[in-house]
Amino acid sequence: MIYSVGTSPQCVTVADLNKDTLLDIVVANGNDNNISVLLGYGNGSFGNQMAYSTGSYPQSLAFGDFNSDTQLDIVVANRDKNTVSVLLGYGNGSFANQMMYSTDSYPQSVGVGDFNRDTRLDIVVANGGSNTVSVLLGFGNGSFAE
Questions:
Q1: pLDDT score at 146
Q2: How, if at all, do strands 73-78 and 83-87 pair?
């Protein structure tokens, strides 16, 4: 089976975004400056994409619960904008408009973890243009320190 997403897909990952115990797909679409969300039906097929805006040329993405509401949220590394986009999830497979946070030059990969042991998720970004790593500490309400 083949499913339409945006142009120049860069990264794909899976998670249960709507709490139905079925895996869903999220794709970072580089040339469209968005992500595609395809909800799974549990039989190997998926619904049509729902697109959500990101920064310029989304390169990679990761999941986490950034606002402590037990719903999965998405963070996206925006290569050509030197930012990450955070999209808070509603728990039904849909997401709020992005919030952007600055990184260093050419962010290419993003990860999630609790780096300062405060029980709140933080974001780490690999910046290919500056040979650095940006760490954005989470406040637990969906926002981050830059």
A1: 84
A2: antiparallel
Residue 106, domain member (yes or no): yes
pLDDT beyond 90 at 84? yes
The count of other CB atoms within 10 Å of the CB of residue 102 is 12
Question: What are the CA-CA distances from residue 86 to residues 1, 41, 60, 118, 136 (Å)?
Answer: 30, 26, 12, 20, 11
Domain that holds residue 92: 9-145
Amino acid residing at 56: S
Kindly state whether residue 4 falls inside one of the protein's structural domains.
no
Identify the three-state secondary structure at position 51: strand
pLDDT per residue over 7-53, tens digit each?
Answer: 999 999 999 999 999 999 999 999 999 999 999 999 999 999 999 99
Decide: 97 and 107 in contact? Cβ < 8 Å. Answer: no
Strand order in the sheet with 99-102: 58-64, 73-78, 83-87, 99-102
For the chain, how many structural domains are there in total? 1
Residues facing residue 111 across a β-bridge: 124
CATH number of the domain that residue 117 is part of: 2.130.10.10
